[in-house]
């Protein structure tokens, strides 16, 4: 007979150690698909590590990958804190990217210190806008936001396709459905010469620290935590749950929109429908690995990014499918979920001694 | 006038039922899980896994029904993962479901790529063929619309009745419905809440996977990346629309299929005036609309999303 007993005060070791162990365990589990694919296990791991950390170039690539993941991770973390299940970061990212292209590809021109804030604001606003519908349906009609935000991802991607074949199409693209390029003054400049890592990383890091302070130190942050922990109690103590949900939705959608701005104006330079290989969904894993802590999101985004970059490079070298990266990321989400259970409960084996 | 003509052809209704088939399996699967109190957002990935595993089994020579069995087993496997995480461990059904979707999808893609490393065009199998039932298939209108479908569509229709019968006419069904409303009362009857919930999630997931297999073994004859394309999420919306009832699930899926078949035909009529993406958005918009329509009166199973632990009152 197995019993679970709630822990009143989980130790710091458990709180911080469990996500690390979960991630490590997922990496170890990857040995199974690797060996089934007939790859030499240890050299494959070696290639993954050198692919992510082996040179300044690979570190720059890893940081470039981590940038949108920090932002979508923050988007999921703040929403999940308030138990607002925003699974629509992928669509919000694309809306943000589209808004950045709409204002940043030549309609207006100004120096960088104006253009960059302008496209950031436009992108954040567009991302946040995507949650207005789901939040109204949730608070007014009680429609589950999981399904509406998920379905909106598909609608947005089709909308982007439509715009790229229509209003936003680059006449110089020789028929490829892609947008006109972002003008030079709106480009997020690279941080290192001849490397891809760009200003978006700094924006993402600032967002993480700002969000951490916001959640910990402000009244609004306190209300968000209160609503997430016990909506009924929060309501009873005079917190407007609806208002808090709207605030969280705007923050979450805005952060996901910023990820789109960063990708389109920092990494790619133009908008196409393959801008994001699922950063919105991966952001959920990033947030869960971080136990919804904004600072933790930075670390877990670095982990997820190195898995992606490392697996890509290993895949090129020995021909194992790079879907291995998605597999590791999915397994680490399930591992950290189980790990979270072990932090909250003690497990007892054997018979229950006292009647309880 | 032309619109009415479209609705009156047997061809149109044949297409509607074909589009509805995977959704029927999916909604039945989702409603079994939810009736037992467990939201299964793994559905999108389970569809993918069923589509891939079923096709792969046939491609390796298992035979069509062998493929269906393999798909169901794959679905049951991922359902079991979701069930263990959400039932005895009581973890977030939302996050676990998303995790199962990510796992099942990436594992399917990884397996497909590993088995077929450098194919440019996806290899094909010989899929289920349209039935040719003596007399019935020759009936006017319902012959081509209903009795010339493939065996998997027939199986979907049979499963509607089986699911309805089990849920409403057997003690097992009563227990499953009760465990999603008031688990403590079920335990007081001496039944195992865990066993009922885990069983329901595994069975429901197996059904979902057969819906996925329909796509690669009946609607098409090959597996493509991204072919599920949100169908799983559509099923979750349709489950609410169907008020968790198998009969209404059939109706909802058919309405959805009819609408989808209609927009494809409309596209050829007025396609020149509107971008094709507007039509492709329709299924997703329709799903959201379905949720809004029933929002006020949706009667969710009372213990849906609520974890229950042994010994709890």
TrEMBL record, chain A:
Alphabetized GO MF terms: transmembrane transporter activity
Cell compartment(s), UniProt: Cell membrane
One annotated Gene Ontology cellular component of this protein: plasma membrane
TM segment ranges: 12-42, 62-80, 114-134, 146-164, 197-215, 244-261, 281-311, 323-342
Record's keyword annotation contains Zinc: no
Keyword Transmembrane helix in record: yes
Keywords per UniProt: Cell membrane, Membrane, Transmembrane, Transmembrane helix
Topology of this chain in the membrane: Multi-pass membrane protein
UniProt xrefs under InterPro entries: ABC_transp_permease
Matches recorded under Pfam families: BPD_transp_2
Name the UniProt record assigns to this protein: ABC transporter permease
Source species of the chain: Thalassospira alkalitolerans
From TrEMBL, chain B:
Keyword terms: Cell membrane, Membrane, Transmembrane, Transmembrane helix
Signal peptide start and end residues: none
Annotated Gene Ontology cellular component terms: plasma membrane
InterPro entries membership: ABC_transp_permease
Species name: Thalassospira alkalitolerans
Location of this chain's protein in the cell: Cell membrane
Name of the protein in question: ABC transporter permease
CDD domains linked: TM_PBP1_transp_TpRbsC_like
Any single Pfam family the record assigns to this protein: BPD_transp_2
GO molecular function: transmembrane transporter activity
Membrane topology designation: Multi-pass membrane protein
Transmembrane segments: 12-31, 38-58, 64-87, 94-112, 146-168, 194-216, 278-295
């Amino acid at each position: 007979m197995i019993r679970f007993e709630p822990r009143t005060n989980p130790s710091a070791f458990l709180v911080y150690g469990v996500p690390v162990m979960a991630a490590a365990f997922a990496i170890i589990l990857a040995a199974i698909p690797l060996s089934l694919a007939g790859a030499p296990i240890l050299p494959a791991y070696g290639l993954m590590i050198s692919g992510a950390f082996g040179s300044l170039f690979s570190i720059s690539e890893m940081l470039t990958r981590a940038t949108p993941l920090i932002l979508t991770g923050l988007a999921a973390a703040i929403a999940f804190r308030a138990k607002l299940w925003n699974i629509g970061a992928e669509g919000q990212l694309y809306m943000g990217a589209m808004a950045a292209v709409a204002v940043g590809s030549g309609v207006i021109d100004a120096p960088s210190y104006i253009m960059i804030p302008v496209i950031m604001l436009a992108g954040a606003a567009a991302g946040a806008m995507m949650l207005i519908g789901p939040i109204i349906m949730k608070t007014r009609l009680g429609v589950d936001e999981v399904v509406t935000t998920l379905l909106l991802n598909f609608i947005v991607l089709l909308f982007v396709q439509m715009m790229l074949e229509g209003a936003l199409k680059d006449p110089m693209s020789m028929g490829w459905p892609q947008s006109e390029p972002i003008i030079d003054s709106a480009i997020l400049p690279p941080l290192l010469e001849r490397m891809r890592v760009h200003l978006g990383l700094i924006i993402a890091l600032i967002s993480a620290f700002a969000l951490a302070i916001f959640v910990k130190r402000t009244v609004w942050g306190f209300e968000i935590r209160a609503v997430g922990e016990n909506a009924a109690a929060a309501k009873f103590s005079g917190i407007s749950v609806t208002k808090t949900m709207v605030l969280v939705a705007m923050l979450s959608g805005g952060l996901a929109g910023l990820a789109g701005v960063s990708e389109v104006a920092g990494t790619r330079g133009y908008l196409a429908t393959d801008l994001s290989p699922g950063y919105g969904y991966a952001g959920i894993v990033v947030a869960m690995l971080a136990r919804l802590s904004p600072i933790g999101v930075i670390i877990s985004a670095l982990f997820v990014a190195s898995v992606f970059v490392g697996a890509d490079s290993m895949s090129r070298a020995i021909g194992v499918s790079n879907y291995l990266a998605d597999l590791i990321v999915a397994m680490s989400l399930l591992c950290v979920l189980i790990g979270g259970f072990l932090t909250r409960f003690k497990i007892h084996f054997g018979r229950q001694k006292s009647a309880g | 006038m032309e619109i009415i003509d479209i609705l009156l052809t047997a061809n149109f209704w044949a297409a509607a039922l074909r589009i509805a088939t995977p959704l029927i399996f999916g909604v039945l699967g989702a409603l079994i899980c939810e009736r037992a109190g467990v939201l299964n957002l793994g559905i999108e990935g389970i569809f993918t896994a069923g589509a891939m595993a079923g096709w792969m089994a046939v491609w390796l020579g298992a035979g069509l029904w062998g493929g269906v069995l393999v798909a169901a087993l794959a679905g049951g496997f991922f359902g079991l993962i979701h069930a263990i995480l959400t039932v005895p461990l009581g973890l977030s059904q939302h996050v676990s479901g998303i995790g199962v979707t990510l796992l099942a999808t990436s594992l399917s893609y990884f397996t497909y790529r590993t088995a077929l490393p450098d194919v440019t065009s996806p290899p094909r199998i010989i899929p289920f063929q349209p039935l040719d039932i003596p007399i019935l298939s020759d009936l006017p209108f319902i012959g081509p619309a209903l009795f010339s479908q493939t065996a998997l569509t027939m199986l979907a229709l049979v499963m509607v009745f089986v699911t309805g019968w089990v849920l409403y006419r057997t003690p097992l069904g009563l227990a499953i419905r009760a465990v999603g409303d008031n688990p403590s009362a079920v335990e007081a009857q001496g039944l195992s809440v865990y066993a009922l919930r885990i069983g329901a999630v595994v069975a429901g997931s197996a059904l979902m996977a057969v819906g996925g297999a329909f796509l690669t073994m009946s609607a098409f004859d090959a597996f493509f990346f991204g072919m599920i394309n949100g169908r799983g999420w559509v099923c979750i919306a349709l489950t609410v629309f169907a008020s968790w009832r198998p009969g209404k699930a059939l109706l909802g899926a058919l309405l959805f299929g009819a609408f989808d078949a209609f927009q494809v035909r409309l596209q050829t009529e007025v396609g020149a005036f509107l971008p094709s993406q507007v039509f492709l958005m329709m299924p997703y918009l329709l799903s959201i609309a379905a949720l809004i329509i029933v929002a006020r009166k949706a009667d969710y199973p009372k213990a849906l999303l609520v974890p229950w632990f042994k010994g709890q009152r």
